[in-house]
Amino acid sequence: MPPALIALAIGAFGIGTTEFVIVGLLPQVATDLSVSIPSAGLLVSGYALSVVVGAPLMTAVGARIPRKTMLVALMGVFITGNLLCAVAGGYSLLMAGRVVTALCHGAFFGIGSVVAARLVAPGRQASAIAMMFTGLTVANVLGVPLGTALGQHFGWRSTFWAVALLGLLGLAGILALVPAQPPEPPDAIRRELAVFRRAQVWLALAMTTLGFGGVFASFTYIAPMMTEVTGFGPGSVTWLLVLFGAGLCVGNVLGGKAADRRLMPSLYVILSVLAVVLVVFAFTAHWKISAVLTIAVFGAAGFATVPPLQTRVMSKAEGAPAMASAANIGAFNLGNALGAWLGGLAISGGLGYTAPNLVGAALAVAGLGVAVLSGLLDRTPRPVVSARPPVTTRKPEVQR
């Protein structure tokens, strides 16, 4: 793998850390800024919705800018947003910092996926994308727990100072290791937007929203599930999340390798496995050993979806993949919000803390259905339009 992928992975590590670390710091933030826990929780929702809006917006802004230059600019936005969070003296400025940080998220992963795919030989694109997304998975294993511990010991602002430093490291790596690429043609924006006329691009975005929504329907409520149903103490949740994160890393690599071999069959299998694991989790969550084993498998199955889903939308947006790739990152975050909302509705409806697993399984099955439909459309032959004039059987007139 080219060293440039390491620089992209470092940037992904920083972005993944700042996205999720706020979850572990909510009590400290709420107390320090004198707001309620639900109000502090909006810092998570505000970030996710800003990713959905910012992904296509920032990609469109940078459509005519060389991709390396755009990646550098996005890391600059990331550093600025985290610095705003670090110095925030009130809730409003902290929310503003979160929104600014989120603006770079989708465009970085979208453009970074295109750059990563072009750094390797054909047939290894999904593995290259998986390498970049390894930074995101490692952020869940190391970045979030370490950032939470740092914030608990030295104040929540110290975490954002540390993440800003990670951004500087990623910025330096991109400048030093990512090769320069030619500027985009003048009609780049029009070509990027034109891919959204393709039905297959929208189907790819739909399978991302539904498939990954299944992951977050369960994952969002994994802490109360483990404490209220399984019987683990609150202190064990951190290590269970580390185990889940380790599964993410394994699944990310396996998903990339499988997608490089056979993309759509891999998606069928992975989404099917994810649905089955979530159904099983609704039952194994009642016992500690079985719950621990299922969490590891769930993590692997959940993140094995990411490389093939990202590769699929890029393949269907061939010729102008950056905007569609960034939109797919927005689709991941839309799936996060959808899954969390539906899982919460199940709990509020009195179905219990294991009900989000079944909601997630239903979403994964829906994503599988969209994937099958998309695969069938691939096999549908297109009508061939002949350029030859029609053959006439009319007899020539005989002159008299």
CATH class of the largest domain: Mainly Alpha
Q: Approximately what portion of the residues adopt beta-strand conformation? A: under 5%
CATH superfamily caption of the largest domain:
MFS general substrate transporter like domains
Percentage of residues assigned to helices: over 70%
Explain the overall architecture:
The structure is a single chain. The longest helix has 30 residues. By secondary structure, this protein is mainly alpha-helical. 80% of the residues lie in helices and 0% in strands. The protein is globular, with a radius of gyration of 23 Å. α1 packs antiparallel against α6 and α5 packs across α13. It has two domains: 178 residues, Growth Hormone, Chain: A (Up-down Bundle); 193 residues, MFS general substrate transporter like domains (Growth Hormone, Chain: A, Up-down Bundle), CATH 1.20.1250. The chain starts with a helix and ends in a 21-residue tail after the last helix.
Could you give a short description of this structure?
By secondary structure, this protein is mainly alpha-helical. The chain has helices spanning 4-33, 37-61, 67-87, 91-118, 125-154, 156-177, 188-194, 199-219, 222-230, 237-261, 263-284, 288-303, 306-316, 321-348, 355-379.
